[in-house]
Amino acid sequence: MSNRIYSKEELDQALAQFGITDQTDVSRYGSGHINDTFKVETKSGTRYILQRVTDAFDKEVLKSNILRVTNHLKSKGVKTLEVVGYENPWRVYKFLEGYTSVDQISDPSQAELAAGAFAAFQNALADLPAPELLPVIKKFHDTVDRLRLLDEAKKVNYNNRLALVEKELQFVDARREEAAKIVTMMEKGEIPVRTTHNDTKINNVMLAPDGGNVVIDLDTTMPGSALYDFGDMVRTSSAAAAEDEKDLSKVYSKKEYFEALVKGYLAGAKFLTENEIANLAFSGRLITLTIGIRFLTDFLNGDTYFHTAYDDHNLVRCRTQFKMVESMEEQAEEYEAIVKKYAGK
Q1: Which long-range contacts (CB under 8 A, 24 or more apart) does 69-77 make?
Q2: Mean pLDDT by 10 residues, the chain (345 residues)
């Protein structure tokens, strides 16, 4: 989300192209970091979400992907975002009335609901007709490529920060071989490329009292691996502490939340192959390592990608992710047993 200030005339003009002229209030909405998002109140009582799509995306690719995904989900009877109109750079959705969202999971039951929602989302898109969606961000969760970028950042060595991260680099080096596992299996065809969400945080699921939960924020929906989606759920939803917690004694992966994720996901993800199921527990470690590598890379580059609040913010984030990886490694046998339990193995 940018800090740009929009005039009333600009917002009114954006809405008018979609036939909305009775607005009574248009105000900033949500906690998203990418697009500029507004909630629209109208005299008729119908509410909308108005968004200006960021210039960071290929807007035509994004538009095509969003329309294909939402139309396919509707054809399968899966509740999804209702696109009122889409004329780059603006788009309008119907406001999801009666739904709620949370920014942080506070109970295992929420983890189970979120995992079930993403499983249903992937399940419905498993038969999306050809051609594949186009990638909005290339090599987004490609750990091998993230390692390449880290090695390039070591040469940049902004402000001689390399001297501060010797332990972190050793941590990465010790896991380089296993970091290539999923990418290699996909290249060999041992794990299929699927249509995946790629940002499976709890606040990207709108919760309904009747259980008809809706997956939102579809901008990164593109070809990927179901394992990356599940892995990022584990990273974000089983974390005992915030992503930038400085006290590493508070940082660990909560087993009961991991179990809730597995239970909810496997109940709905009917499309998974044996190889995908066998790597579910590993995927949590892998995606968490990958995000840690991204924070470390940005630290060495001089904090050019992620917004930071203080000098070593990205290094703190990196260390938190690596501590989460250690916690998952320590519980690896228990996590594998949980997957086998719900997979009926």
Answers
A1: 69/125, 69/128, 69/133, 69/195, 69/218, 69/221, 70/218, 72/124, 72/125, 72/128, 72/129, 73/121, 73/124, 73/125, 76/124
A2: 84 97 94 82 97 89 96 94 96 94 87 93 93 90 95 97 98 96 96 94 86 89 95 95 96 98 95 96 97 97 91 97 98 98 88
